[in-house]
Amino acid sequence: MPLSLNINLMHIFIISWAGQHENAVAISNEVLGITNAVSIVYSDPDPELIINAACHLIKRPNELFLEDKFKSCLDACGDSPILIIHADCKCDDWSVVVMGCLNATSIFKNIGVWAPKINGTHWNIDKTKIAAISESNLSVVALTDGIVFYLSSEVIARMRKVSYGDNPFGWGIDLLFCTSAHVLDYLVVVDESIEISHPKLTGYNSDHAKVGMLNFFKWFSRRELIQFELLSTFVKYKYSRAI
Q1: Are 104 and 190 in contact (CB under 8 A)?
Q2: What pLDDT digit, counting tens, does each position of 116-141 carry?
Q3: Going by C-beta distance under 8 Å and a sequence separation of 6 or more, which residues neighbour residue 127?
Q4: Are 112 and 174 within 8 A, CB to CB?
Q5: pTM, 2 dp
């Protein structure tokens, strides 16, 4: 099917921190020729460090974490949908990821959240998959991780109504954008033909991150909390059947 892709509509943000800047620049170089809006959102212990990249740069305080960088993406994207990429992810060709996202969102206008198949994360596609979309590589899922992901303008509008200060490590951000998309009657999909790898190790205390996530649930509406319980029950059921 011939596609008419408006490449000016999507803003790509690459999240970087100390030790990942070289990766971030490499990713930006792969995708700069595809969309007209690419930014690296980064932090570093050196307050004087400026990344040498051809794209737009957004530097954030080093003591702040994902919640601050995610909010920076929301603040900078204007009316555009966004594709966020964490710089520690590995992929053979990032242009394939971007084109896969553009193709999917061009064909299916009701996609609220798009992601590739991500190895090394909590949400296993075998347990989160609700149904395959015929004649495509896409599967509707209950939840997906906030590692490499696209958000539509409608989901972005919802995420802008949230305060992120009590959740510095960003756990739960993915739970809200997936849940809100389902509530808004938009699709949450994974392209199973595109795979990336993500390291399982984290550089922070997971107990602290969990506390932030629990605080973050206060920003869910009542309808979103009910929807999240339904989605969680579905995933738990799939996990229990696999044991």
Answers
A1: no
A2: 999 978 788 989 999 999 999 999 99
A3: 235, 238, 239, 242
A4: no
A5: 0.92
